[in-house]
Specification:
Number of domains of chain A: 1
Pfam families (chain B): PALP
Distance between the termini of chain A: 25 Å
Number of helices of chain B: 16
Number of domains of chain B: 2
Helix content of chain A: 40-55%
Structural class of chain B: alpha/beta
CATH superfamily of chain A: Aldolase class I
Helix content of chain B: 40-55%
CATH class of the largest domain in chain B: Alpha Beta
CATH architecture of the largest domain in chain B: 3-Layer(aba) Sandwich
Strand order of the largest sheet of chain A: 5-4-3-2-1-9-8-7-6
Largest sheet of chain B: 6 strands, mixed
Catalytic activity (chain B): (1S,2R)-1-C-(indol-3-yl)glycerol 3-phosphate + L-serine = D-glyceraldehyde 3-phosphate + L-tryptophan + H2O
GO molecular function (chain B): isomerase activity; tryptophan synthase activity
Largest interface: A-B, 42 and 37 residues
EC number (chain B): 4.2.1.20
Enzyme class (chain B): lyase
Radius of gyration of chain A: 17 Å
Number of helices of chain A: 11
CATH architecture of chain A: Alpha-Beta Barrel
CATH topology of chain A: TIM Barrel
Structural class of chain A: alpha/beta
Number of strands of chain B: 14
Order of helices and strands of chain A: EHEHHEHHEHEEHEHEHEHH
Radius of gyration of chain B: 19 Å
Shape of chain B: globular
Oligomer: heterodimer
Amino acid sequence: MSKIGNAFNNGKAFIGFLTAGDPSIEKSYEFIMSMVQAGADLVEIGIPFSDPIAEGVVIQEANIRALSVHTRLEDVFRLVTMVRKESQVPLVFLTYVNPIYNYGKDTFFAKCKETGVDGVIIPDMPFEERDECAAEAKMQGIDIISMIAPTSKDRIREIARMGEGFLYIVSSMGVTGTRSEIKTNLKDIIDVARTETQVPCAVGFGINTPEQAEKIAAVSDGVIVGSAIVKIIAKYGNDAAAPIYEYVSAMKGAAIKGGA
Amino acid sequence: MKTGRFGPFGGQYIPETLMNEIQRLDKAYAYYKKDPEFQAQLKDLLDNYANRPSLLYYAGKMTENLGGAKIYLKREDLNHTGAHKINNALGQCLLAKKMGKTRVIAETGAGQHGVATATAAAFMGLECEVFMGEVDTIRQALNVYRMELLGAKVHAVTSGTRVLKDAVNEAMREWVGRVEDTHYVIGSTMGPHPFPMMVRDFQAVISKEARQQILEKEGKLPSVVMACVGGGSNAMGMFYHFIEDANVRLIGCEAAGRGIDTPQHAATIAKGTVGIFHGMKSIFCQDDQGQIDEVYSISAGLDYPGIGPEHAYLHDIGRAEYIPVKDNEAVEAFEYLARTEGIICAIESAHAVYQAMQIAPRLSREESIIICLSGRGDKDVAAIARYKGRDLHE
């Protein structure tokens, strides 16, 4: 198993997300370190994209902010190098497939390995299109993290069987963004997945309160939080490090409580 | 070859949440494509509601004036709702009904596909919501009202660059959120498989008719078949039944906007590179980081940074040619066709008319050219007047 497995060794995992370059690479570094100090077990770094079709308004706007300061892939890799000097926290990229394709698949994954990225989540690359990057990623030992949705049904087993790193269980229909209620029967989905794989199952999309984190951690191996953190960045801008620390501490505490 | 590929192009690059639905759609379409009852119902709708077959009109004045090949216009502008878009909207809405859907959503640029979908939905009793870039809702305000008259709800998209590409993004986001009762009527030969193939099949009626009509009139095949290309649905429809006729040149005319040497164009084949976006691997206008470009054309219907995967393939294997045509050239053809033939065509179609005007004089009178006149120009009159410096508003 890759280093991603380590994220699940400290009680139920808390996985935090931000978009690289929002509002700057230097600040993204500071915010990631703030998450790590607050107990985040894995950090998901979004590579900014002009047309993020799986994202709700909050993360769309983060993409626009990052692109407005001309964040480039080289900058995102530089961010990873900066984090790696200070921390061995598992890191994964969240990226649409086009920036990878455009950069060159071989170069992209080689650069992931060189800088210390452990996995990639590609929301517009379903199981059927995995071959687009599977060989290039495998060659460098980078995990491709698969998503399972509330609509996956008979696809769950097949996706789980190929699971690497962790399985990203999408909590609800629709795009990313905070939700007041999560109705999907996550336990049933995770139970099916677990019959096929040892890989941990983390749940994302919509989670923003400690109560939700606790409840979802109780049925899964961890919680993924994106829009709620990005909202803090949108609100506090350059001064978001302290409120992020506070928020992540509370959420990690709730996740651990959910697992107890 | 993998599912839904045209050479290396095509595929299904979409979120997992949509995969089961897309596979269900693929199976349903494969079934109904061969179902005589479905095909008979669709033919009845096309003939008795949409006014098919459309005329293959001999443009005698234009032919005389240009002094070369005989020019024929495939009059999709005479269809109900005024464009080829109705062919696909009726096909997909009928399929949606068969699949038990009660609601359809659509993206639209100029508003023609939105109007066609709203029309088909009204006729078939489906709920309809249309996503349209805010910029386009302003430049095509009349079409917004038209859709509302037809009972559709129009969402002005304020994300991104607020044009067609963003309308597609928003329609996809809507579909990811509500897929159970909803079919997404994609308006062009783009998106994930089976859309590029399915939309092409629904539009292929254009070349099926045209091939037969030209053989009746001329006793032989045309030398050239041409159409404008944005996503490429009228062009795929116009090309399809001529692809096997190796001696028929297929020419697609893309929007060069203010010129392909400026950043303000939508000439995907001329200036784009291979990428993966909107569910498909194809050719896109994008920067060196794979960020999708903001594109520009006077024509809202061609203002799209990509092209359907089958066109990318036809280009790749050298079967079809793609030529950029600028705003001012399209406007020149728009005016020319109005004056010589008394036909006001869509500014999109005028891109193909312009290129035909360049090619016709170089061919002999023994040869013929068919131009797909994909839509009528009523929607463009005010915008062209403004382009020409006349302060005219709808």
